[in-house]
Amino acid sequence: MRCVPYPKMEFGAWFILWLVVAFGGYMISVFITIAGIVFWSIAPVIRLKQNKLAKQYIRMQCITFGESFDVVRSSLTKGGQRSMTQDYRINTFGLTQKQNQFVSANLPVRYCKLYIADTPTDLIAINCEAMIVNASAMEQDDADMIFGYYQEVNGCTDETILWLGEPMPPKAARKFFKCYPDFDAITDKLKYLLLSAHSRSRKSYEYSEKLVNGLKILFLIRKHPGISTQTLTELTELPLRNVQRYISALQVTGEWTEYDRSLRGWKLFHGFSILYGDVWEEDSE
Q: Which residue in 120, 60, 63 sits closest to 92, CA to CA?
């Protein structure tokens, strides 16, 4: 995986070519001249938009498969690695313009955004803190798809689902939804519901972030025996004390991490990790 320059359309050569064709032959074609004037009048707008995208995104290219995709710059750490980002977003489906405006006025925090889904699949594909779904605007097959999805994941999601009207979720899936007869039933308490959803999502995010940091430290110790605490701090971009706490937590969970004085760094006992199955493989032999 490598970073490549974000693609921008270069207008300089085309502009010179147009000047030569249009005016070098004393306006050899009036159509070319007029079309060029129209195009070059909007070219600065196109370039400004490209510059804005280049500041927001980094183009990543997979060398193995030759595929390219964009990554938000804010989701990358100083070392260029992808960091966890929380989605401050409220999704809605099937609400009227007035209802969406009411939701927008009651967002839990100022940096939270409202996303109006066009299709039911967007409700599953696009992460959010909470979603408000007008079920009457949805086909039965689409509703069954959503019910089946949340039954399959068994509620292992962060978002709060406010389900309005019919069709209602089946009894087996109803525990994953907050069901109300219509939008009017939640207007008085919408702010509280969205704040509760934001708090729940934030707690889940913080837990996931700690879990990822712990796994990252375990991976670095396993891959680089004798790695120092200072190096772990630099690679994970965590404070020194936090790295020490994570190592202590790994020891409590059964990962036999120990400090090797000869290597002046951390390593796993005989290089075995419970999480990676090394201990069980050793026992099976």
A: 120
